[in-house]
Q: What sequence folds into this?
């Protein structure tokens, strides 16, 4: 079964740009769309990126997603960091072969 | 506006049973695949079960297979999770999630807490 590996934590200053990686252990990252979720403390997760690069309405353009087949990973980039971006972020994809949903372990973003 | 409202959580003894419900509105429930995802406090998200739109096929994560049953009532727009043989390690917040046509777990409920303890 494929595993998604994320850094445990990242930190950056307000106004700066941060990237969060999500590396897929097996199978190509290009084979299945990747989603990204934000979970603020005490709240349910909410989607910020879907189908690798798309933003739901209401998510600011500071949030962007990409994939890199050479490293078999997806990346969430948040630019112009704001204190409200401080949250846990999870990558996810649907493994259509195994009929299961795979989540990364999550990354805690601290905005210093 | 899409709404997913979970209920049925609570405190249950090891070996006991509990049924969670998720009332859905604001989208075509009968056309949507649905999932349950759980989260131990302080830990990450773990998918545990999926059911397709007509309820005919369900898939489970290994740790709950044979103990949990996901089902749905498309006439009432309700998703269920019947949990039996509960263990301390099942203690978590349980989220109901809904797919769109192309995106898995796009919508999330607010979660319901399940605590398994004597």
A:
């Amino acid at each position: 079964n494929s595993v998604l590996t994320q850094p445990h934590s990242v930190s950056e200053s307000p106004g700066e740009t941060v990237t969060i990686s999500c590396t897929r252990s097996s199978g190509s990252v290009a084979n299945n769309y990747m989603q990204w979720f934000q979970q603020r403390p005490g709240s349910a997760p909410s989607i910020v990126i879907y189908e690798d690069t798309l933003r739901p309405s209401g998510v600011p353009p500071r949030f962007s997603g990409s994939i890199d087949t050479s490293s078999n990973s997806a990346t969430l980039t948040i630019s112009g960091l704001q204190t409200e971006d401080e949250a846990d972020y999870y990558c996810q994809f649907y493994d259509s072969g195994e009929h299961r949903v795979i989540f990364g372990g999550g990354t805690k973003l601290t905005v210093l | 506006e899409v709404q997913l409202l979970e209920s049925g959580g609570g405190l249950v003894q090891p070996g006991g049973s509990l049924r969670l419900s998720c009332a859905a509105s604001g989208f075509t429930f009968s056309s949507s695949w649905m999932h349950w995802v759980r989260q131990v406090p302080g830990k990450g998200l773990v998918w545990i079960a999926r059911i397709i739109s007509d309820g005919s096929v369900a898939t489970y994560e290994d740790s709950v297979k044979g103990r949990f049953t996901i089902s749905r009532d498309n006439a009432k727009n309700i998703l269920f999770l019947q949990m039996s043989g509960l263990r301390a390690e099942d203690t978590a917040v349980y989220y109901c999630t809904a797919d769109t046509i192309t995106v898995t777990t796009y919508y999330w409920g607010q979660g319901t807490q399940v605590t398994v303890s004597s």
In short: The interface with chain A takes residues 35, 37, 44-47, 50, 59, 61, 95, 102-106, 108-111 of chain B (CB under 8 Å). The first strand of chain B starts at residue 3 and ends at 7. The mean pLDDT of chain B is 97. The CA atoms of residues 99 and 105 of chain B lie 5 Å apart.
